[in-house]
Design a protein that fits this description.
By secondary structure, this protein is of the alpha/beta class. It has helices at 19-28, 42-52, 78-84, 94-100, 104-116, 129-133, 137-148, 176-194, 196-200, 214-218, 235-247, and strands at residues 5-9, 35-39, 57-61, 88-91, 120-125, 158-162, 202-206, 225-228. The protein has a single domain (5-247), classed as TIM Barrel (Alpha-Beta Barrel). It is built from eleven helices and eight strands. It has an eight-stranded parallel beta barrel, surrounded by six helices. The structure holds phosphoenolpyruvate.
Amino acid sequence: MPRKIAAGNWKMNGVGAALSEIDALIAAHPTPVSRIVICPPATLIHRMAARAQGSALAIGGQTCHTASKGAHTGDISATMLAEAGATHVILGHSERRADHGETDAQINAQAQAALAAGLTVILCIGETEAERDADVTLAVVETQLAHSVPEGVTAANLVIAYEPVWAIGTGRVPTTDQIAEVHAAIRTHLVTRFGEQGHEISVLYGGSVKPDNAAQIFAVPDVNGALVGGASLKAADFGGIITALDAA
Ligand code: PEP
């Protein structure tokens, strides 16, 4: 069975004062069944990792460069993330694809850099609203998987997050049938490409997951958890999602 994972993407939110949310989260969920990951802004990784030491909480970055060091002003490498205390990194988020023009080929190279640094990659894929309307969702997701997921990954170092772009931060969520259809296609791709490991790789759903819709989403076949944006910022909200996942 794939590991159940609740991952929080804080995006460009949170300064030092937000660390109290981490203390509250750890206190409320000392021994969760699920893997819990928070991906804060890079400025908080080191402090959050220190805070989370000895707890069940893992820390992740939100992107990384393809190189481990060099003349890349403003960028951060996977080596730096790992040194700061991260064990995971989100790659290919639709906001990175849209704001920074990241391509599948670049995401693939970032993933290779992350794996070389010992990080677990949470790799995001998902269709835009126009692509869903044009009925090409499965083709889009298949292409993203084929080009952005590197060879040689295992269930220990890769997590896939299916995030329909139109569901992120909008309060709109696909139907459970729509989620099931895409997750089944993702699982087929992973098994075809990675054999037994493909059965074990966690596949998360992301896009407007909240405490009140989490249980319904986690009941969908092949949904092994969630990548959560807005509702991961507050321990009480994220805690509700963790509780739902633990019980699923
Ligand atoms: C995200 O940005 O990865 C996300 C899922 O955001 P939200 O939960 O706010 O829709």
